[in-house]
Specification:
Mean pLDDT: 95
Largest sheet: 6 strands, mixed
Number of helices: 9
Number of strands: 11
Number of domains: 2
Oligomer: single chain
CATH class of the largest domain: Alpha Beta
Helix content: 25-40%
CATH architecture of the largest domain: 3-Layer(aba) Sandwich
Strand order of the largest sheet: 2-1-3-10-4-11
């Protein structure tokens, strides 16, 4: 039993807003501390036991001790996701190298699967640093995720949506991030946590109205690109993905 506030890590991207609206407006403030960062940073905090529960890239689940998914809500996709894409100046078959976004391990792992099994190309991989988007040129493409991907959608002649490619390859949905705990948490806390997330998802219209983001239609993003329900179909896609990266 934890005799302190439960530390909860969440992703600082727009697509998380519909999951945390209630928490940002005071729900469970006496029981939990909410911490925001980019996906791979939240994942590392969960691995290091710096937080108790996190919305983490699913690729790290095998690295989290005592990992357990504690919510039936997620960042998933049953359609093109729009915010996880490979951007290029040339068609996919002409790409020679790919800059890998440092902000998510799941998207990098997914890209490597798709390059090998779907597009069947073997480019060189390049680690990224802040501002790497400006380095996309010639046969050097880049994986960009999150809000920065939405900003870039109209800036390149070739944009390959990773969720869409996964669905074409496997006929399965994809889960980018799930709520994962690294220890047993009280049943009452988990129940209230999920009730609050469900309530948050009822405020999408209000959330959209509160955000100034002219680069992309957030109504489309939150209601069509992102699918927040972790159902059996998504769990099937998640298990298949984990089996691919573990083999």
């Amino acid at each position: 039993m934890l005799n302190r506030k439960i530390k909860v890590g969440a992703v600082s991207y727009l697509n998380t807003k519909p999951l945390v609206y209630a928490f940002e407006n005071g729900a469970m403030a006496d029981e939990m501390e909410l911490i925001f960062d980019y996906p791979s940073k939240v994942a590392q905090m969960l691995i290091n036991d710096e937080i108790d529960l996190g919305l983490v890239p699913v690729a790290v689940i095998p690295q989290v001790q005592h990992a357990q998914i504690v919510s039936n809500f997620c960042i998933g996709a049953t359609n093109p996701v729009a915010s996880v894409c490979l951007f290029s100046q040339v068609p996919i078959q002409d790409i020679k190298s790919v800059i890998l976004d440092y902000q998510s391990r799941t998207s990098v792992a997914l890209l490597k699967i798709l390059l090998k099994d779907f597009w069947k190309i073997t480019p060189d991989f390049i680690a990224s640093e802040v501002g790497f988007e400006k380095d996309i040129n010639g046969t050097m493409a880049a994986l960009i995720i999150g809000d920065r991907a939405l900003v870039q959608l109209n800036n390149f002649p070739f944009v390959y949506d990773l969720a869409e490619a996964w669905q074409q390859l496997t006929n399965l949905s994809f889960v980018f991030a799930a709520w994962v705990a690294n220890k047993s948490l009280p049943d009452e806390f988990i129940s209230k946590f999920n009730v609050s997330i469900k309530a948050s998802l009822g405020h999408i219209d209000k959330i959209v109205d509160s955000i100034d983001f002219p680069e992309y239609d957030l109504n489309v993003y939150f209601k069509e690109n992102i699918d927040y329900i972790l159902d059996d179909k998504k769990m099937e896609g998640l298990q298949h993905f984990l089996s691919k990266i573990g083999s």
